[in-house]
Amino acid sequence: MIPMRRKVITAIAGAGALAASRSGLIFADDKSITVTSLGGRWEQSIRMDFAPLFKKRTGADVRIVLGGPAQWTSQIEAQPQHPPLDAVDNSEVLAMELVDKGLVEKLTVARIPNLRDIPPLFHETWNDFGVSYQYGASGIWFDKSKVTQAPQSWPEFLERAGKGEFGKRIAFPDISYGWTPELIWHLAVCLGGSMQNLDPAFKALQKIRPYVTKFWGTAIEAERLIVSRDALIGWLWDGRVYAMMDSGDKTLDFKRLKPNSLFSLVPAQVVKGGNTALAMEWVNTLLDPVPLLKYYERIQYTPTNTKVVLPASSAPRIMPVSEGVIPNMHELTQATPGIVARWNAEMRD
Amino acid sequence: MAVTSSPVTQGVRLKARRTGPTLWMASPMALLMVAGYVFPGGLMFAISLGYPIGGGAAHVHLNFDKYIALAHQSYLWHVLFFTLLVSAATALLNAVLAYPVGLFLARSRTRWAALCYLITFTPLAVGMNMLTIGWLIMLGRNGVINTVLERLGLISDPLPLSYGLLAVIIGLAHISFTFMVLPLETVIRSIDPALERAARSLGAPRWKILLSITLALSWDGIAAGMLIVFMQSCGAFVIPLLLGGSSTVMLPVAIWEQMTVSNDRAGGAALSVVLTVIALVVLLVQLRFFNKLRGPSQ
Question: Global pTM?
């Protein structure tokens, strides 16, 4: 009976995979390329800053699939023989998953000339199977009319927050936010721990927990907490906060804390089995100084290409590459289930 | 060889002729359900048993390891019971709030009934996301409710209304309100007003008529509405995520975390199957015990 059931389940699943592999809504062809983008300003940038240059250079059209890294990675894994995407803007962790499964192409200077102007950290993190064309830096945002003396370092921020100095007005990421595991690693390292010893971070987080008004799950939620001032201070990426400051929030401020900041990277990858030649050119376009400058002006995340000449007025906002850190992705992937379990046990009840 | 039909066989054929066109008319929706629910549901179940997303079924060993592992996680049991509890509380609250509205809609002949219908349908018209944002604005620290209470001098510090259990239940009750009112209104409308008039003519007070006739005869509508609301609440994602806090995680949020943070798709699929089973059980209960909305002859 059980083998029969298994046969039935396997048959259903097999039929599903077969159907999925043949029924992708989008297929690559020679005259167009299918790429990915987050919505909102990111989509605008892809359409208006990068796609026109790509079209000019190759004559090919750019089709954009909106969504998120988890969706795109699943689509690629579900249809490895006929991937529905040629290039993907991935999350740091899921990019490594595609590397490990052999589903993405290696990126070389020969095929992507702009790669030579990118600091090694931004592609070696994925063994050259992905390259980040921009980076964000972690820090704290705060209402400077209420928080007059901003913390200078991560340990100071956590200590003051844990003593209730900011009241129950702190916004902090929840474990449902994809970057929280690496944030926990970063805080642990800043407090003397490591990927193998995350105790310092969890101890500090348990202390601040009573003062967190909301553990948010999406960055849009974090932005809403800032706008509504349900929180006075919190953790976030620089680009998002700077964009809000530039749109007229006079009492909002952002500060990177010592000893360093966590990088937020978006590795672009070329999917195996797709339109590889065009996809390589697309990634080359993503790394091009001209559209990258426009991207920066629109989104405020720093381009990784060293040839991009940023406005002098932006200098105080730009984090030097030497001040950013990123965990080993393999170690992080292995540690993440444990981090989630520990968060559930210690931070929720 | 001549074959003669028995009366029973003829009856079956007649019934088949009657149901035939109806079946054909329902087939597009049936196909949609197979393509949109049954097929992906089967695939999800297979993934929960270890079937790899990218194929390779020939060497796959299907097993229940994920289910066993999940069953050993006390946190997930907590999430499961919390989901059931919140959904039940939402259904109960909705029944209490929706009954007077359903009664009014079924019995009223005034022009206010149209306005009441309009208000009843607003959660559907506004949509989940806008409704959630609306409640965030209402319940926030600097939101409408706290601001009004502060200006009236009733409170000195803002009340913690958002990002907790209260906000989640309010949001869930609001979004599913329409689905509670409609079955109630249908059932109450089917109760013959002559029964209430007869009781009144015999001297029964209004409250007794309401309790012993109207309410007693509308239990099926209450139960049907509550089950629909319960199922909807069990599957809610946006409201618990945005209106809730770290201690109000419900099953769909846990599935999301399993899939996107832990990167454990099989575990997420297993939790999805658990959620589907809960919904199916509730549906079966409804069909078995409370399916009298099909008409008075049923």
Answer: 0.83
